[in-house]
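As agreed, record minuted below.
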Amino acid sequence: MEKEMELNDLMKGEIFTSKQSVIINGKTINLDAETGTIQLRDENDKPIALSGFTHYKKTDTNENRPIVFAFNGGPLQASFWLHIGILGPKRVVTNDPFHTNPASYKVVNNEFSILDKADLVLIDPIGTGFSKPIGESKFEDFWGVDQDIRSIGLFIEQFLARTEKYNAPKYILGESYGTLRSAGVTKYLQDRGVVMNGVIMIGAVLEMHNLLFGPGNDICYLIHFPTYAATAWYHNKVKDKGESLESFLNDVRKFTENEYAPALFKGDQLTDTERNTVAQKLADYSGVSKEYWLKANFRVSNSEFFQELLRDTGLTVGRLDSRYTGVNENLLSQFALTDPAGDAILPPIIGAFKDYLYNDLSAGKHLTYTPMAATRPNFKWDWRHSGNIVWNADLAVSTLPDLTSAMKRNPNLKVLILNGYYDVATVFYGVEYSINHMGLDAELKKNIIMKYYESGHTLYVHEPSRPKIKNDIDEFIDQTSK
């Protein structure tokens, strides 16, 4: 009987509380913080998981403050990136765009946090952080596009009830794969009567198949090219840098739409003169030789580009942030063997966050925090999505139809998308392409706000971008919470 009671208690989750504070614009904001797990129930109130989270709310206030639910991507990663990178009361200092010295890492007050504007809930999907299945559930019940959307949607609904925030202004904030998730979760919740005031996307992708360089998909080459050009511009490998990065990229967009796209469409129907003209322009904009583009038949994947751009200097460039460079481990290799940006950014983010989690937030040291589900045995993601299946075949990986439907059914829904010019993980021209194919009328399309930064996938490691991110998110919450 005692063991059964003990098991039942464990299935309810464990929450650890602490007092935190953050100074923003010279004003101290005191916070009640809780971290740990709460029991997640299915639609019939059957316990299915322990959901990990961290929650910050302003101390001693009756104000019905907005609430932001935030998560990272992967799939499948915990929310430590956003937590100690830009949203929480503390942030880790990194040596952008270079490697940060090993521990001890410096953690400082985060004057760019959103906690002066809203309460914050950082969500760790099942299999990450402290989150795990319970009862009859298994990890695979949560590891998939639709399974993940459902579990995050259930968590948000149940958390709103727990905190009595159903009538507060509500926001979803996702990064990377979390943006694809956020589109699905927004529609999932809206279909159940839970309407968001706004959706914030950092490093957005809504059509995953366009990032994967699949056979026969020329769109992926087109949407990556402006980011190749931005990368070459940064590393001084272009023929003419123009007046600014923005003006340079406007020219690149025009070339991509008016010359590069038709060339790919024509295939072997191009004349030799046309092929040479296009190849030369590809070289001038990208910093990769005309001969390379011709050998590649105008189709260069991101990993090939990382390896080729600075090959003559013995370096390779980053995927998460192409401002970063690293040692090219094999100068004969066609594909990059590592991501210098990930190698540089991940260790200080994880190291500093775990120290903050177990010490400042007082999380139980008997609990293992899992940053990424991919480190678990037998991790496998189910890429099927109900909105993409035709003839019983999954034709794409896209939640663009989810977001389109949600916006058309709720014309008050606003979307803020923050893009890094040097992000080669989720390229800015890709989400531009997606938005331009949503079929929104001009008035409704105004509900999508695009912002750009001279940074990469983790926008917030770039010091000049942090105040701009803060200002853009603040303005968005102010405008949509009234």
Notes: Residues 128 and 375 are 10 Å apart (CA to CA). DSSP finds 14 helices and 16 strands in the chain. The chain has two domains: 2-209+346-480, 215-340. Residues 245-266 form the longest helix (22 residues).
